[in-house]
Amino acid sequence: MLGTTLLAAKEMPLGDMLFIIVAFLVLMVILKKVAFGPLTKVLDQRADKISSDLDGAEESRQQAEQLVEQRQNELDQTRQQASEVVASAKASAQKQGEDALAKANERADSIHQQAQADATKMKADAIAGAKSEVANLSVAIASKLMQKELSVDDQRALIDAYIADLDHK
Q: How many Å separate Cα 28 from the centre of its chain?
């Protein structure tokens, strides 16, 4: 077959050959303008679109990373604030407990002091009552022993002197 093509080329006149070459060149120019030009333009546009899509994807990735970092920082801050709130609540509860304990202790001390004061008053009243009873008994005994009645003022003076001697001993 190759041999027949070469034979055909040797037998082809020069005018036909020039016509074929010129037609081929014109066809190439037409193809370049009609097919190759728009095709390369479409391919260039496609390459530009892919490049811009890649750039957009990279930018979106960077924005996503920044957003993740920002959210992580906010989460850390929120955790720290929550820890501070818990610590503050614990401190407040402890202070309230200490205040309540201090008030309870103050109240207990107040009750204790009041009880001591009441006991001291009751003791003094009991001693005064006992003094009065002792005085009356002493007067009764003394009057029976002496067989005479002492006046009330004499009795009181005698009792006070006796109690004074008891207090000094």
A: 78
160 occurs within a structural domain: no
Q: Round to whole Å and give the CA distance between 16 and 3.
A: 20
DSSP annotation of 151: P
**How many domains is the chain partitioned into structurally?**
1
Whether residue 84 lies inside any domain: the answer is: yes
Range of the domain at 80: 16-125
Residue 116 maps to a domain: yes
Tens-of-pLDDT digits for all 169 residues of the chain? 454 554 555 677 888 899 999 999 999 998 888 888 788 888 899 999 999 999 999 999 999 999 999 999 999 999 999 999 999 999 999 999 899 899 989 999 999 899 898 888 888 888 877 777 777 767 666 665 564 566 777 777 777 877 777 667 5
